[in-house]
């Protein structure tokens, strides 16, 4: 049984109800978490406020940094423990779960070093005046964490908020709680109430978090539809939000591209975490001159991909739940009904339990630009290819969705690299790579329906602060 973590202690929800936790690899229940409600959010906010007004406010930036570094060291020493939790919660192959735990440690390490680097400015003004700007924390930040990369997003969201001087109330996805990380923070000396975890359904706990008058800023990562609800609830009390709402990201391959470098990145960009990645490169735009040979090469690679239980550490693990599996099946059914050709498909290994939520990676071709497969986020291992002729058409196709999160451009032409980077409407553009190793230093966020504000990097600290201007009139 997993409990809420409020004021550095484990607590039963006020409802007395629980939710089952299911292993995606076999579809079986293996644990229970609390089904919390607004009363539990209120308890967490009160604990956070007490911490903010007492112990946390007394810590200077250097001391906060040392606390975050101690947590990073603790996480680094517990990578295998945390990876095992995420593997069972989320169905991630071993090496992916381990990489997420390592990334979590790196986020806290990065933000530990950033705590005392958050500076203001001095501004020229009238004679006889000195004007300063200060960066101050919002106060209590609320964090709604998704199930696809729970540890990583906890690190870049909560880590940034703490570094800026806030305290946190976290609502993790019901499929992947983050209670152990909060416990580790308490173990290394975080004050009571600095990090609080409240589990439960989004429409009960997430809604209560967004509406609570004691929450001063909200960070949300998830779907555009839920992001809209979060914004509406926050707007009722003028609470600022940071939103990362997914994408339909293009990989754009020109005829002069280095295909030996591009092909592995294209494949990894759609099969990582079984395609359940907001930045998944789910649209493949290919220069007509190399369309057929590239699809042939990718087809052979797709057919070699294997899907199986998380513990088998294959190319892909299962999808998170049966409803997500059904969603992917519905998209593929639409492709079949629309006579969209399938180039190739990987395979689910025989030893995979039939009760697990598996989906073979699938490569489709000639997908019409207005088809839902080219417009909507599948959140599964489905890659949609379409040809283009010329740079202008490539740009038009790249920008032809409501999303604008990530884009990849593959070309040896230096001038084209810069032109494409300028013309594509996207929060990130990767040239001759895709993801750049997922560096914690790189600001991450989107435009259009992919949201606004930035996570990761130093830029995230600015969103977790408010700017105060102080004007001094000199004495006579």
Describe what this molecule looks like in 3D.
It is a single chain. The protein has 476 residues and is an alpha/beta fold. The chain has 2 domains: 4-245 and 452-471, Aldehyde Dehydrogenase, Chain A, domain 1 (3-Layer(aba) Sandwich); 250-438, Aldehyde Dehydrogenase, Chain A, domain 2. 39% of the residues lie in helices and 21% in strands. It contains 15 helices and 22 strands. Helix 5 (150-163) links the parallel strand 7 and strand 8 (167-172). Helix 2 packs antiparallel against helix 4. The longest helix is centred in the N-terminal third of the chain and has 21 residues, at 38-58. The radius of gyration is 23 Å and the shape is globular. The N and C termini lie far apart (68 Å). The mean pLDDT is 96.
């Amino acid at each position: 049984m997993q409990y809420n973590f409020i004021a550095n202690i484990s607590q039963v929800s006020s409802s007395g109800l629980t939710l089952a936790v299911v292993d995606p690899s076999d579809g079986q229940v293996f644990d229970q978490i609390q089904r919390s409600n607004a009363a539990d959010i209120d308890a967490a906010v009160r604990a956070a406020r007490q911490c903010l007004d007492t112990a946390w406010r007394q810590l200077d930036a250097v001391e906060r940094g040392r606390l975050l570094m101690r947590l990073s060291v603790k996480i680094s020493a517990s990578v295998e423990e945390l990876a095992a939790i995420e593997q069972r919660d989320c169905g991630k192959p071993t090496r992916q779960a381990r990489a997420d735990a390592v990334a979590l440690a790196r986020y806290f390490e990065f933000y530990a070093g950033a705590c005392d680097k958050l500076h203001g400015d001095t501004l020229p003004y009238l004679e006889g005046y000195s004007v300063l700007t200060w960066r101050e924390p919002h106060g209590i930040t609320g964090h709604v964490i998704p199930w696809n990369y729970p540890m990583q997003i906890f690190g870049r969201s909560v880590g940034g908020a703490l570094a800026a001087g806030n305290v946190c109330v976290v609502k993790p996805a019901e499929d992947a709680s983050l209670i152990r990380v909060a416990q580790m923070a308490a173990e290394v000396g975080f004050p009571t109430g600095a990090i609080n975890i409240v589990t439960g359904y989004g429409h009960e706990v997430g809604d209560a978090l967004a509406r609570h008058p004691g929450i001063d800023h909200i960070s949300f990562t998830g779907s555009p539809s839920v992001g809209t609800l979060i914004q509406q609830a926050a707007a009722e009390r003028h609470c600022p939000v940071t939103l990362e709402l997914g994408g339909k990201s293009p990989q754009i391959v020109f005829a002069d591209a280095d295909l030996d470098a591009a092909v592995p990145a294209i494949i990894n960009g759609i099969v990582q975490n079984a395609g359940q990645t907001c930045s998944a490169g789910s649209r493949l735009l290919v220069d007509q001159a190399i369309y057929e040979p590239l699809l042939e090469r990718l087809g052979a690679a797709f057919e070699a991909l294997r899907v199986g239980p998380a513990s088998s550490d294959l190319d892909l693990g299962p999808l998170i739940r049966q409803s997500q599996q059904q969603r992917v099946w519905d998209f593929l059914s639409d492709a079949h009904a629309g006579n969209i050709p399938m180039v190739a498909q990987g395979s689910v290994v025989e030893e995979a339990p039939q009760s697990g939520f598996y989906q073979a990676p699938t490569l489709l071709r000639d997908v019409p630009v207005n088809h839902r497969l080219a417009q909507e986020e599948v959140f599964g291992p489905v890659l949609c290819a379409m040809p283009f002729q010329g740079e202008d058409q490539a740009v038009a196709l790249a920008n032809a969705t409501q999303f604008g999160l990530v884009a990849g451009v593959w070309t040896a032409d230096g001038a084209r690299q810069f032109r494409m980077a300028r013309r594509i409407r996207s929060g990130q553009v990767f040239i001759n790579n895709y993801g750049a190793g997922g560096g914690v230093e790189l600001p991450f966020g989107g435009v259009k329906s992919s949201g606004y504000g930035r996570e990761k990097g130093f830029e995230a600290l600015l969103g977790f602060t408010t700017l105060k201007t102080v004007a001094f009139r000199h004495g006579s």
